[in-house]
Design brief:
- The C terminus is likely disordered.
- This protein has a 6-stranded mixed β-sheet, with helices on both faces.
- It is built from 11 helices and 10 strands.
- Helix 4 packs across helix 5 and helix 5 runs parallel beside helix 6.
- By secondary structure, it is α/β, with parallel strands linked by helices.
- It has 2 domains: about 180 residues, Rossmann fold; about 70 residues, no CATH class.
- The two termini are about 30 Å apart.
Length: about 270
């Protein structure tokens, strides 16, 4: 087991946000947290990252070790956070943004080595954006920025990525491109935990979906078994045609779990 959260109860002041939440993540999985605004998705992600101290019980373990007792610099070498929005204040070249991923491996005044630069360029090349290395980060598209942040996380040395709404604000083409890259990287053993408002995205690419409502887990299972009309109605209070969500899958995103005609995803 790569990552485990056991009996997480968490609140701000007198308001409880998460109620006895338990989950586990395996290496190489794409796991989507699905739920309406205010259900606790972002709070849970930050707890998994070790950014919030648990105040009402529970424990998070990464590779068997309590996250709260793991030095933050050490944890950052294994788990990377890719934010929903990132707007740099200065027009750093894309390569410099990616090189910032090496900071957990450096002392404060240590300069980047040739190996650091090679790692950054390899990550850019793997994501097919090496041609952007000299472009100002402030001058590239939203989709290219998200891929740049993934390259930075890869350069960080992390194999577990935590995303908060990674496709939010991207046009449809960049959404699909991002989802394709997640699938490609998961096949290489990278692990992705992401929150999303898009049931169709979760269905297309996720090995597993965790549905959250009012701070509790409503459902947790394989995407094709969990994303049902009944569960979506319970989550959003709307009748949703599940067949319409499945319809574009084969066209848009290659099936992570098998060939395009795999009946489990059709």
């Amino acid at each position: 087991m790569l990552l485990q959260a056991e009996h997480i109860t968490f609140g701000y002041s007198s308001k409880t946000v998460l109620h006895d939440v338990s989950l586990s993540i395996n290496k190489g999985e794409i796991v989507s947290l699905l739920g309406p605004n205010g259900c606790g998705k972002t709070t849970l992600l930050k707890i998994l990252l070790g950014l919030y101290q648990l105040n009402n019980g529970g424990v998070v373990r990464f590779e068997g070790r309590d996250v709260s007792s793991t030095p933050k610099k050490k944890l950052a070498q294994s788990i990377a956070y890719v934010p929903q929005f990132h707007r740099a204040s200065f027009a750093y070249p894309v390569l410099d943004i990616v090189l910032m991923g090496r900071m957990p491996h450096k002392s404060f005044f240590q300069r980047y080595s040739r190996n650091d630069v090679d790692l950054a360029k390899n990550a850019l090349e793997k994501l097919s954006i090496l041609h952007l290395q000299d472009r100002p980060y402030t001058k590239i598209s939203g989709g290219e920025r998200q891929l740049t942040l993934i390259a930075r996380a890869m350069t960080q040395g992390a194999h577990t990525f935590i995303f908060d709404e990674p496709a939010n604000g991207l046009d449809y083409g960049n959404q699909i491109r991002l989802l394709e890259e997640l699938i490609n990287l998961s096949r290489e053993g990278y692990t992705f935990i992401k929150s999303t408002h898009f049931p169709d995205h979760a269905l297309w690419v996720s090995d597993r979906v965790i549905m959250m409502k009012q701070g509790s887990i409503l459902a947790n299972g394989r995407s094709d078994e969990t994303i049902t009309s009944e569960n979506l109605f319970e989550l959003y209070g709307r009748d949703i045609d599940i067949h319409s969500l499945r319809g574009n899958f084969k066209v848009c995103v290659p099936n992570k779990l098998g060939p395009a005609n795999d009946s489990s995803k059709s």
